[in-house]
Write a structure and sequence with these properties.
48% strand; nine-stranded antiparallel β-sheet; 9 strands; globular; mainly beta; 1 helix
Length: 143
C-alpha cells in the first residue's frame, strides 16, 4: 500500500539554508505541514535534500510545492542501501518540475529498489542565482 514515508523518525539534511537562518528557512519547514513556511537554499548549484528513512523503503513518488521563480527545473533522485548509506548508486530517475506555485507529483520507474536514504539533487534552477524554495515535500511509497 502506498503511503507517506515521512515519519517522526525521518531525518533530513539539506545542502544549504538562506543566510544560515535555519529558524526561518530551515529543513524542518519541508515537512511541517504549514503552507506559510519553507526551506530556502543559499545561492549556487547544485542544491540537494537527503532523506534518511531509518529503514529500507520503496519510493514511488516525490511531491513538491515550489515557489515560482525558485524552482529546481532539472532534478534527479538517487538512493542508497542500508549497508552502504553514503553510496548513492541506485538511480530512481530524473524529473523536470514546472515553474509554478502549485503542488507537483513525480513518479519513479524504479520502484522495486529498496533504499534507506534518498538524495534529491536540484541540478538547475529557474532562479538566476540558483536558489531553491520549497514549501512542501512528501515522499510516497511502501515500507
Amino acid at each position: 500500500m502506498i503511503t507517506s514515508l515521512i515519519t517522526p523518525e525521518t531525518r533530513i539534511k539539506v545542502s544549504s539554508v538562506l543566510n544560515r537562518d535555519t529558524a526561518s528557512y530551515g529543513k524542518q519547514h519541508l515537512i511541517d505541514g504549514n503552507e506559510e513556511t519553507c526551506w530556502n537554499s543559499e545561492q549556487g548549484l547544485p542544491q540537494h535534500i537527503v532523506v534518511d528513512f531509518g529503514d529500507s523503503v520503496s519510493v514511488h513518488q516525490v511531491v513538491l510545492t515550489f515557489q515560482g521563480g525558485f524552482v529546481g527545473k532539472k532534478c534527479y533522485a538517487l538512493g542508497s542501501e542500508a549497508t552502504t548509506p553514503n553510496n548513492y548508486s541506485i538511480d530512481l530517475g530524473s524529473f523536470y518540475p514546472e515553474d509554478v506555485n502549485s503542488t507537483q507529483t513525480f513518479s519513479f520507474d524504479n520502484t522495486n529498489s529498496r533504499i534507506q536514504r534518498l538524495k534529491i539533487v536540484f541540478e538547475e534552477s529557474t532562479d538566476f542565482y540558483g536558489r531553491i524554495t520549497i514549501y512542501k515535500m512528501d515522499l510516497l511509497g511502501e515500507r
